[in-house]
Amino acid sequence: MGGRVTRVFRNFNVENRARREISKEKPTAAPRHPTAQLDAMADHPEIKEEVLRKDDRFLTLLKDVYVESRDPPVQVKDGGGEHLPRKQEEKRLTKLGHLEALDVKKVSKGKISIVEALTLLNNHKLQPQIWTAEKIAAEYSLELKEVNSLLEFFIPFTVQEFPKKTKKAI
């Protein structure tokens, strides 16, 4: 409903408004600043002809010019002891089970791989008395606070199979 009303007002007297806009005097462009080169070339066609003409004497001199370019030899700076200090990360071998082919072999201390995370979560779920947060932190070189957060917020999936409903059970 609203579209019809707005269309009526929008199309009202369109032709007269368009004619009025077309018949208005067009604004004149701002005057351009005269430049020395354009004015000189426009006034004197012999200068324009001189610029466009090829000079045979200069062409022969240009053909005699041969430029040979060589890169300077590359010098390798021997910094000696000027290297920036690097943080040496301590690495540990991962504790892999039957999924050894799927995982990385070395991990930085304080971090665990995905397979290790799934393994420790599953171990904690199956045997929480044995796999406590303190034991997991010591086993995988993790901080206790991070292990507690991991055990609290991440839970591995459990697969549950329900028996098929038979016609007798229904």
The ordered H/E elements are HHHHHEEHHH
Name the helicity range.
40-55%
Distance between the termini: 56 Å
Rg measurement, Å = 42 Å
Mean pLDDT score = 79
Which structural class is indicated by helix and strand composition?
mainly alpha
Looking across the biggest beta sheet, what order are the strands in?
A: 1-2
Structural shape? flat
Give a count of the beta strands, DSSP E runs of length 2 or more: 2
What percentage of the residues does DSSP assign to strands (E)?
Answer: under 5%
Low-confidence stretches: none
User: Sheet with the most strands?
Assistant: 2 strands, antiparallel
**Helical segment tally?**
8
Protein name: NADH dehydrogenase [ubiquinone] 1 alpha subcomplex assembly factor 4
Family: Belongs to the NDUFAF4 family.
Subunit structure: Binds calmodulin. Interacts with NDUFAF3.
Pfam families: UPF0240
